[in-house]
Amino acid sequence: MESNELRIFKTVALEGSITKAAQILGYVQSNVTARIQQLESELKTPLFYRQRGMVLTPSGEKLLVYAEQILHLLEDAEKALDDSINPSGSLAIGANHTLSSLHLPAILSEYHKAYPKVDLSLITGNTNELIYKVQHFQIDGAFVKSSSISDENIIKELAYEENLVLISSSKYNDIQEVYYKPFIMNTVGCPNRFQLEEWLKSKGIFNIRYMEFNNLDSIIEGVVEDLGASFVPESSIEEYEQLGLIKSFKIPQEYSLAKTFFIRHKDSLKTNALQKFIEIIESKTSFHSIINSDYNSLKTLT
Length: 302
Hints:
- 43% of the residues lie in helices and 22% in strands.
- The two termini are 38 Å apart.
- The chain contains twelve helices and twelve strands.
- The protein has three domains: 78 residues, Orthogonal Bundle (Arc Repressor Mutant, subunit A), CATH 1.10.10.10; 106 residues, D-Maltodextrin-Binding Protein, domain 2 (3-Layer(aba) Sandwich), CATH 3.40.190.10; 96 residues, Periplasmic binding protein-like II (D-Maltodextrin-Binding Protein, domain 2, 3-Layer(aba) Sandwich).
- By secondary structure, it is α/β, with parallel strands linked by helices.
- Strands 3, 4, 5, 6, 9, 10, 11 and 12 form an eight-stranded mixed sheet that branches.
- Strand 7, helix 8 and strand 8 form a beta-alpha-beta unit.
């Protein structure tokens, strides 16, 4: 069993398709098919059900766990040998859409200027998508809201708290007028959206209409144009409110307090590149280090 075979197997397993795996790996489909068949022959067990895509058999599910661990260890070995005082190599960071547009661009720019040898990439997605990528060693770390999984393999490195406010066009002065407007929010899975729904339910409002924008700037501009209301970090609308373009309304802290954590897999190598990134985040934002890295108290939002 070779590492390249495991890499092909893992890609097919995650994509559920020979065609997609071949495209990602840059191989012809027949080569991928042959390598999977060779691996099954070597292990003397089928690894996939071949019905409407490639679905893992129980043996395939077992092998995937080991394949991810083996490939991760090989990648970590390369990183460890290549790590130096001056950060280099790759660094893949995940973030939700709101954080990626509000806090990170300036920080990423400063990091790139300080450490130009690092191949930096930013992957955006919702909380559950980012957690999955951390679990499977697809990214080095991610910023997620205070919702997660009971997984002892994931630790949190930093924490940040912010207040969310209800916002509307400046023409509205009474919060009651805002309750029944469409809400411009991220898609399902956004913790801010979950908190908004919980608060509206406490007001007896269950029929909520949404307009889904996955970009904070677009959300705010939509509110300015009176397309609807929204529920966003207070820091994101300060200038708009000062210019009289937006009206904000505070709601009880039990619904408005939002926490963001930087998470990583406990078995991932904390490279010099990642350590320097964390140091810049701490120095430029209100993120602070967490001494206790127990992450099990956080529960997944569904």
